[in-house]
Known about the structure:
Layout: E1 7-13, H1 29-33, H2 41-57, E2 62-65, H3 73-78, H4 85-93, H5 99-105, E3 116-119, E4 129-133, H6 140-143, H7 146-156, E5 163-166, E6 183-188, E7 191-198, H8 219-228, E8 236-240, H9 243-247, E9 257-260, E10 263-267, H10 274-285, E11 290-294, H11 301-307, E12 313-316, E13 322-327, H12 334-344, E14 350-356, H13 359-362, E15 372-377, H14 379-383, H15 393-406, H16 419-435
Parallel strand pairs: 1-2, 4-5, 7-8, 10-11, 13-14
Antiparallel strand pairs: 1-15, 3-4, 6-7, 9-10, 12-13
Helix pairs in contact: 2-15, 15-16
The protein binds N~2~-(3-carboxypropanoyl)-L-arginine.
N~2~-(3-carboxypropanoyl)-L-arginine (SUG) binds next to loops.
Amino acid sequence: MSRTTLRELQLDGLVGPTHNYAGIAPGNTASDRHRGQASRPRDAALEGLAKMRLVHRLGVPQGVMPPHDRPSLATLRAWGFAGRDEEVLSRAASVDGGWLLRLAASASSMWVANAATVAPSTDTLDGRTHFVVANLAAAAHRSLEAPLTERILRCLFADTSHFLVHAALPGGPSLGDEGAANHTRLETDRGAVHVLGWGRSEDDKPSQRPARYPARQSREGSYAVARLLRLPDERVVFARQHPAGIDAGSFHTDVLAVGQGGFLLAHEYAFEDAPGLFERLAARLGPAFRARLVNEGELPVEVAVRTYPFNSQLLTLPSGKLGIVAPAECQAEPACKQLFDALVGEDGPVERVVYVDVRQSMQNGGGPACLRLRVPLTPEELGALAGRTLVNDALLDELEAWVKRHYREELRAADLADPALARESMAALDELTSILHLGPIYDFQGPAVAGG
Length: 452
Ligand code: SUG
């Protein structure tokens, strides 16, 4: 039987104009370390675009997703701050030490690995590509993302003969779901398997939970996501995250593990029982499946969380071999370099490693893999994408010029209450929807918002 060939779209989140270091992300050590520092939104957005250009030039389909509008005045009004925009901002800045304003101003929608979980049409029971928007219920600022993420995905993947976008799971943290950051699709000649990582469950004993940081993804949420994705049971494997990994700062599975095709690379603290997981996967995926377990002696988890080698993008290159797009922070770390060198060696599955500088995002705990959502598509589905979603050099040039026109070089905590920042951000995003041919997607663009 011939198999449909999928190409994996890398859909990157464009960094928004309010990128800042508020230190509001639970269990995220980088966000904590950089709390209160000045950020560089223009550099952050240009770094993201440079990564998109690099992946595009590697011959891999690359797309772009618009950022969310921040500060979200609608959210601040929903929290009871009334008046003109500038009054809403200054009132929010004056209570709770400005925390609510920081929540409403985060540019966290850039980490689109947390936007949704995706299952391709070749794997689902109804032959459509399914998306489950993540509820991100574990962190207040991220829980604000779901409604607009849903609207944007419905806009980009509007063709319902191919695509189905599900709303985020109801149920709050008990059904906490962080999207594709806890999801890995593997595939060999035996078919595809989806690995869904989770960190907490309602029936846990306290000793099973991480001691220091919260586990964001719930088992109950992961089960619900698998049901909604319409994946047959034999294509799904659930795996508990290692509590020691979460306590070391691995708030998502993709901080300590990454897989692609028939290959899975994982730190020993990624999953509670990594050898058992590898066995289960080998039984389903057959001899073509390869796994590489990296132990603590080879690469300490502290180094892995600081430099993010497992948060690299593992890409299937046009040659059919794998390429690694790794954060520049790995280059200076001998243990990471050694690991990559071994993967590229004679018998290794990897053809090449390229490094990208996404420092501004890394300082908030988001590496190359966090900045992209993987959407495996058939050629026909790729052709059904709406808007100017697929990038090419001309679009990237336009977006770079747009960033340079609109983004501030530097942003400090006090600037978040500046009404000029909110106005600049809205003007920039309004223009962006024209560049990307999206129509009105933001509330501030008026009542005729696409997709409800
Ligand atoms: O949810 N950081 C994000 C980083 C997400 C990384 N994504 C993946 N691992 N896939 C988070 O912790 C920082 C915002 C701040 O603290 O200002 C933040 O939300």
